[in-house]
Design brief:
Elements: H1 2-10, E1 17-22, E2 37-38, E3 44-50, H2 52-59, E4 69-71, E5 80-84, E6 92-100, H3 101-111, H4 129-140, H5 145-148, E7 152-156, E8 158-163, E9 169-175, E10 178-181, H6 183-194, E11 204-212, H7 214-228, H8 244-255, E12 271-273, H9 278-281, H10 288-297, E13 303-305, H11 306-316, H12 320-323, H13 327-342, H14 345-348, H15 353-375, H16 384-402, E14 407-408, H17 410-416, H18 421-438, H19 448-452, H20 455-463, E15 476-477, H21 479-506, H22 510-522, H23 528-537, H24 547-562
Helix pairs in contact: 3-6, 4-6, 11-13, 11-15, 11-16, 15-16, 15-17, 15-18, 16-18, 21-24, 23-24
């Protein structure tokens, strides 16, 4: 303590102080924050409170959810009676069924939006014309629900079946059950069930059940959604919702808490809405208290829709002309870039936790720019979207020029969850210059919206001189730091992916891998490195594969599934 006191006394006066208060008890929710103070020297002091609840959130930040297993055994007759509807074996099995409406509703009430993760959209509310019709049928003509409704299309990675006395098939459990088409039907039934307006035995729903392996499901499930979904308009962006990139970002957004600000006890999340209506849908079935707690942790102003993400990323990728073509077209461009990079393992590794944090920082800058433009004295109204897009892109271009190929320091913005006064001044200066560019098309009288969509406008914006605000250099990193950060991101991503692969491998016993080896040998699918990886896997838990071997084993599972292998 003496050394610390001496260091504080001899050191230069700090710009600010942050005191960390640690307690081994959970703090009451009524105590949201400790008000900031100032020392005698006018140095601002803020407080960070660390209680058991906050430590638990950090501990849980790496948690991975268990498989969703739905139990049908409580249905009269011991399960869900199904009619096989596929020929042969392999990576797909199809069944037709009629499921009681109250059973489907109860499953949804119990499992919530996890049941709809394979859907391109979640529940879109009761205001739509189609959803009003569903609710009306439930209330007024339940006996005709089967006739009026198209039913649901569901997928599962695995099912267990038994034979009834009459030799019919009965499904007792389904793993990873997903309603890929029929979210509106399912949620409408659940709403009636919660309101006690759904009488048991009055409504029956047609169900098409597809059992597909996870490897095949990545491609097949979006196609099922696309070809089967006709109850509400589906946007082009919806069909990319199930890409592994979006699932990765969604998982990170639920797991990584944002840094608390100004001594606040509340650590919020930036909620990534992979499927339309997901944030609203997650609140379905919650009590008022739980909904308030959910919104406290996932505030509406921190929801990032996938189309919003695409537009922001286009702007900060120096493509403001693409962003100005609209959210859907920006998303198509963004999706194409992600799909291309996802095929390269080294590039895919960069999309980890740090990428998510940087993406949130870019969203913060984008929203800050919207606010600055709206309040600026030089803003005359109109074309705000174009001004914001070009201002964000020019900000990145300026940072690149001033750092010889570097970048804005997104991690700094993430850490303080704001752009900061100095950066806000720079944004205002750029915005005023971008107005002049947009209002000066090469052809007199040309529409500003159309001019903004052209590469010529982008070129003119990047060549426009910008007054640099003093201190702007504090918000950028040079090219060497940028390259080092990207290498670190890839390394961290590869480590995380390897550990996750090893976890998946160790969750399956030795008999699973022995069965896989026998099948692959019979089909001549094994390479020398595959055999080496299978050696420890076939002796789990006595032996443990390496991370690299685990990744190879998961790829082998996919190849075997494509060749017709199914685990016992």
């Amino acid at each position: 303590m003496w050394a610390l006191a001496r260091r504080i006394k001899t050191a230069a006066l700090p710009l600010a102080l942050r005191l960390h208060v640690v307690t081994d008890r959970p703090i009451s929710e009524r105590l949201r924050e400790i008000p900031g103070e100032k020392t005698q020297e006018k140095v601002p002091v803020t407080f960070q409170i660390w209680d058991l609840t906050r430590f638990k959130r950090i501990h849980d930040a790496r948690s991975i959810r268990d498989d969703l297993v739905v139990d049908f055994s409580q249905i009269p007759g011991g399960g869900l009676r199904v009619l096989p509807a596929s020929v042969g074996s392999g990576d797909y099995q199809g069944y037709l069924a009629v499921i009681p409406g109250e059973v489907l509703a109860e499953i949804y009430v119990r499992h919530g939006s996890r049941l709809l993760e394979g859907n391109v959209r979640t529940f879109l509310g009761r205001g739509g014309k189609v959803n009003k019709g569903i609710a009306s049928t439930i209330a007024n003509e339940p006996a005709k629900f089967f006739a009026y409704n198209n039913g649901v299309a569901a997928t599962a990675s695995e099912i267990t079946t038994v034979r009834a006395v009459d030799r019919s098939f009965v499904v007792t459990t389904a793993t990873d059950l997903q309603i890929v088409n029929g979210a509106q039907t399912t949620a409408s039934l659940a709403a009636a069930f919660r309101d006690k307006r759904l009488e048991p035995g009055t409504i029956f729903v047609p169900m098409k059940l597809s059992v597909v392996t996870p490897a095949v499901g990545v491609d097949l499930i979006p196609k099922i959604s696309r070809f089967a979904n006709s109850q509400n308009g589906v946007r082009a962006s919806d069909f990319f919702a199930n890409h592994p990139f979006h699932r990765l970002i969604e998982e990170a957004s639920r797991r990584i808490p944002a840094p608390s600000v100004a001594g606040s006890l509340i650590q919020t999340h930036w909620y990534y809405e992979r499927a339309r209506g997901q944030h609203l849908n997650d609140q379905t079935g919650m009590t008022s208290a739980k909904r308030n707690q959910f919104l406290l942790m996932n505030p509406r102003n921190q929801v990032i829709r996938k189309t919003d993400l695409a537009k922001v990323e286009c702007c900060f990728n120096l493509e403001p002309d693409i962003a100005c073509k609209g959210a859907e077209k920006a998303f198509i461009s963004f999706a194409g870039r992600i799909a291309e990079e996802w095929g390269d393992e080294s590039k895919r590794a960069a999309y980890g936790d740090d990428w998510f944090k940087a993406a949130v920082a870019r969203a913060i800058l984008f929203r800050t720019t919207e606010t600055i433009v709206s309040k600026a004295s030089w803003y005359e109204g109109g074309y705000r979207a174009q001004i914001v897009a070009y201002t964000c892109a020019r900000l990145v271009h300026l940072a690149r020029d001033r750092s010889n190929g570097g970048s804005l320091d997104y991690m700094k913005i993430w850490a303080q969850q704001s752009a900061g006064r100095m950066l806000e001044q720079q944004i205002g200066s750029i915005g005023e210059a971008m107005v002049d560019v947009l209002q000066s098309p090469p052809v007199a009288g040309q529409n500003i919206s159309e001019w903004a969509k052209q590469q010529g406008c982008r070129k003119a914006a990047f060549e426009t001189s910008i007054d640099v605000v003093r201190g702007f250099g504090e918000w950028i990193i040079n090219a060497d730091e940028l390259r080092a950060n990207k290498r670190q991101q890839k390394t961290t991503g590869q480590i995380d992916r390897g550990l996750n692969a090893l976890k998946q491998v160790m969750e399956r016993d030795a008999r699973y891998w022995q069965s896989l080896r026998t099948f692959c040998r019979s089909k001549r699918l094994l390479l020398a490195d595959d055999e080496k990886a299978l050696t420890p896997a076939c002796q789990i838990p006595k032996m443990v594969p390496s991370d690299h071997q685990a990744l190879r084993l998961l790829k082998l599972v996919d190849r075997a599934a494509e060749a017709g292998w199914r685990s016992a």
